[in-house]
Amino acid sequence: MSKNPTRRDLLAAAATSSLVAHAAATAKPALLGGKPVRSTPFPSWPMVEDNDERQWMDVLKSKRWNRVGGSYVLQFEKMWAEQLGAKHCLATANGTTSLFLSLNALGIGPGDEVIVPPYTFVATVNAVLLQHALPVFVDTDPETFQIDARKIEAAITPRTRCILPVHLGGSVADMDTILAIGKKHKIPVVEDACQSPLAEWRGKKVSTIGDLGCFSFQASKNLNAGEGGAVLTNDSELYKLCMSFHNNGRGDIGNGLQYVRNGCNLRMTEFQGALLLSQWKRVEEQARTREQNAAYLTKMLKEIPGIHPARMYEGCTRNAYHLYMLRYDAKQFGLPRKRFLEAMKAEGIPSDGGYTPLNKEPFLKYTLDSRAYRAIYSSAQIAECLERNHCPVNDQLCTEAVWFYQTMLLGSRADMEQIVEAVRKIHGSASALAA
Ligand SMILES: *Cc1c(COP(=O)(O)O)cnc(C)c1O
Questions:
Q1: Which of 83, 186, 311, 424 has its Cβ near the most Cβ atoms within 10 Å?
Q2: What SS3 state is found at 133?
Q3: C-alpha of residue 214 to centroid of ligand 1, in Å
Q4: What is the pLDDT of residue 1?
């Protein structure tokens, strides 16, 4: 089918998928000895093309492996800022350091509170702990998997110094509400856009909406260089602070041994810069493929009892689909989630149950009980921090989530039909599988 299907195409597809649905519902699941729906793997990741190899070899042979004296990281920064519509982009060693740098530039440190979601990769929270600030968890909106912006204001105290929403899975957090709260309370907003390159809120690219925005180019991400990251901002002062801190406190790249402050080495290598530049050429097209496949998948999946694909907020005008997320209602579907995931795997469709609640991680308690934290906060403050970090909606969501990965969305429409066929087949045999 073409990229812009006609009504006839759609009717034909609907007829095929209802036939597929019927066949799927009656076939024997692979877990019980039937034939798997799929025997070929989904597209592998990362993708490597000739221009990646050329650029990589160019860096190698040039012997300019460090950004000081090189040109690839600089070119990447210019390109990425322009693509996203930001004034400044600073490339970093990885996504964690881009978050850490942003909080550092805002002067967030001991005694401060930072509002974070509990449904995210651990790095979001680790960035807060690196600054010896306190993470304050705000519960998740189960329909969207994003931080529940309606609950942020209740979590604000006189010590709140930053709101750190995550655009989870490629979708976008409710930025209208978050920006309004930030403005009202004069609290800066840092966007964790690590999973959402090219995602948009009301036509604006994420990472350019808050005070600072952060990306990761780690191996699993939609744009990847093995490791890597970036900070985006329209604020020249904040950019300068990030630049100098990430370059051992030198004022600028090429400043020799002159220091304007303390700092760290969080620089990106030329190898990373070269890979990002060469891959960039494919990112827009891949994003479009994921969007089209995801829309097709959602249309079919939402017809199945117990399968509830994540909703997007009305302001989310583009989803980068780092993950395809859905809520699996085991009662409605008629099978425990663990068994469902096993059955999907047997059908040749990889999936995952997603994150565990970060706010309940034992390591948080150990960290807050460490000598450094004890030196900064009173026992009452630490107890209070642990006490109020309850997120019951998120606890529930973590038992219901099912993820498919971004690479699965890079295939054909037939691949999407196979995912649906597997789900339907398992649903059709739920009671046999549950026994
Ligand atoms: C990947 C990721 C990070 C951290 O990135 P690294 O490059 O692995 O350090 C931070 N936040 C989120 C939401 C991520 O998915």
A1: 424
A2: coil
A3: 9
A4: 44
